Recover the amino acids of this structure.
């Protein structure tokens, strides 16, 4: 029986671990993360799945410590898998499996190597995302590709919508590739890293809207950081707002000389730096969701200027 040690977290971790178990892989050890109490936990638990199958599960703060490496070696795995695990695995861990160490990454490599690839893909207006199963190397997301599965990004998809598609893409990709990994016939295609891209992590401050930008670019930012992420933030006059959902109105030009938040006939609109208009569909005021119809009434006859980075 093929054996594995699995580093996993989040929904991708749960679904990919489920694939291994469904295909009869002997998972001898699972390593996952302790949930951060300051983080919104909206996803499934790898630890709970491991417990249902009586698989030993540990949550080390640093997986590269000598005692953790010793536990992984003692499991004597054929394969080591990383599924949405948040820590980089060092050379000693990558050398522990007798056959291969593989990672499932949430992009179509070599594009969007690095952190939060789905969010970055939406910010850049991509129309597809996906999952890539690849060999792990010391350089992040740089190893040879075993398989990929793409999914569409629709114009109004939020990051969470795309993430759910990528979870399914990861499951399909692993389910298709695993028999070939086990029998030794899987592909191993070198990446052309020069043709790809690498991005780092994001923080809440990166979600501040610069209204001098085109409406399409702002719409993409709103989609990329909508809940369960922190949301796109802005000042509108004396209001501290979070925009959670917008819709681009490509054939509408705003009535104002500068970027402005305003209401008209019970709807809320934001005019961007290019004069194009977004309809604001979901908003929070002072961190609390505000019914959009109530917000439209509040704005009626009182348009609010929107800040631009150049001002």
């Amino acid at each position: 029986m093929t054996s594995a040690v699995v580093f996993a977290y989040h929904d991708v971790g749960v679904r990919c671990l489920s694939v291994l178990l469904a295909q009869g892989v002997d998972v001898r050890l699972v390593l996952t993360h302790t949930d951060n109490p300051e983080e919104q936990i909206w996803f499934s638990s790898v630890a709970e799945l491991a417990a249902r199958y009586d698989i030993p599960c540990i949550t080390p703060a640093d997986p590269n410590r000598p005692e953790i490496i010793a536990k992984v070696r003692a499991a004597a795995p054929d394969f080591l898998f990383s599924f949405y695990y948040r820590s980089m695995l060092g050379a000693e861990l990558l050398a522990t499996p007798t056959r291969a160490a593989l990672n499932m990454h949430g992009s179509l490599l070599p594009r969007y190597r690095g952190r939060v690839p789905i969010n970055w893909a939406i910010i850049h207006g991509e129309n597809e995302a996906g999952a890539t199963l690849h060999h792990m190397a010391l350089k992040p997301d740089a190893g040879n590709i075993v398989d990929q599965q793409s999914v569409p990004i629709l114009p109004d998809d939020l990051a969470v919508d795309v993430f759910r598609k990528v979870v399914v893409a990861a499951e399909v990709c692993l389910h298709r590739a695993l028999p070939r990994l086990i029998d030794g016939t899987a592909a191993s295609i070198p990446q052309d890293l020069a043709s790809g891209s690498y991005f780092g992590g994001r923080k809440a401050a990166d979600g501040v809207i610069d209204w001098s930008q085109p409406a399409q670019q702002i719409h993409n930012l709103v989609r990329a950081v909508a809940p369960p992420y922190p949301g796109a933030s802005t000042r509108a006059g004396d209001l501290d707002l979070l925009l959670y959902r917008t819709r681009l109105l490509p054939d509408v030009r705003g009535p104002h000389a500068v970027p402005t938040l305003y209401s008209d006939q019970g709807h809320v609109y934001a005019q961007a730096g290019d004069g194009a208009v977004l309809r604001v569909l979901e908003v929070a005021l002072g961190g609390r969701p505000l019914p959009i119809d109530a917000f439209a009434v509040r704005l009626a006859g009182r348009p609010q200027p929107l800040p631009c980075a150049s001002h």
User: Anything to note?
Assistant: The chain has two domains: 3-199, 204-305. The mean pLDDT is 95. The chain is about 25% helix and 30% strand.
